[in-house]
UniProtKB/TrEMBL annotation:
Its main location: membrane. The gene is oppD_2. Keywords: ATP-binding, Cell inner membrane, Cell membrane, Membrane, Nucleotide-binding, Translocase, Transport. GO terms for molecular function: ATP binding. Belongs to the ABC transporter superfamily. This is Peptide ABC transporter ATP-binding protein. InterPro entries: AAA+_ATPase, ABC_Ni/Peptide_Import, ABC_transporter-like_ATP-bd, ABC_transporter-like_CS, P-loop_NTPase. It is found in: Cell membrane.
Amino acid sequence: MDHDETVLDVQCLNIETFMQQETMRVVQDVSFRIDKGQVLGIVGESGCGKSLTCMSILGLLPDTARVTQGKILLKGSNLLDSSEKELIQVRRRLLSLVLQNPMIAFNPLKTIGSQFIETLRLQGNYTRKQAAEHAVYCLKEMNLAEPDRLLRQYPFELSGGMLQRVMIGLAIANQPSLFIADEPTTALDSVNREHVLNAIRRIKSAGETAILLVSHDMNVIEAVADNVIVMNKGKIVESGKTSDVIRNPRNEYTKLLCESRFLNHHTKEEPRAL
Ligand SMILES: Nc1ncnc2c1ncn2[C@@H]1O[C@H](COP(=O)(O)OP(=O)(O)OP(=O)(O)O)[C@@H](O)[C@H]1O
């Protein structure tokens, strides 16, 4: 594989948390790579370390957690060696994140348009007019109808699924090198989930961005991820091409996740923890 294509290379990542005088190794020796135009899925039960792994890449770990060992190479440079100032620049130019609940990402008192335009102008060299035009383009890319009208609306006027797509449109507006989506479909009904998966497919087919997709739903991973890692209790217990892992799961937890695929379609429940 051409090394130039690798966007994110996480090597032997270890994260500890410390709360109430107790230290816990919550991520242990986790390694993975994502190339341009590829989607890597991370699956695993609640508390297995998926979110802290993502937050460490963004340099946004909470005060009660820290990376104790490892490397996070973004296009070859180790983010763990970056200063806070450099990280802010990296987050603006190269990384973007979408979380489960888009409502908390928006200011309820401002229109979608003003927030979209403000963020675009913060990230890039846009006039207000150019930013407004680009916002319309991004919303169209997300297959959202009537983007001009949508930009005049307030967050509470949109459904969760629409807001999530607005968030994704905004997140990829400046073609980040790495797009991290942490449970982007979990709070959505099946129709909106499909819209979000289509949005991810579109980003993938543009071929410029590496995508890290966290989910506990194997259906979602199966739909868009080229490769998958399965985490349990802070460790990778299985990894490989998504189709191979699903066809031939080796680990007991992976088997459960795969079996729950059909169940999840109807109930959206998380599989029982082992
Ligand atoms: N801010 C924090 N301070 C201390 N410990 C934390 C903090 N956030 C998470 N943890 C602990 O770290 C471990 C990993 O949590 P993490 O949120 O990464 O799991 P997750 O796999 O993303 O779970 P979920 O699917 O529920 O979001 C858990 O044991 C959790 O309790």
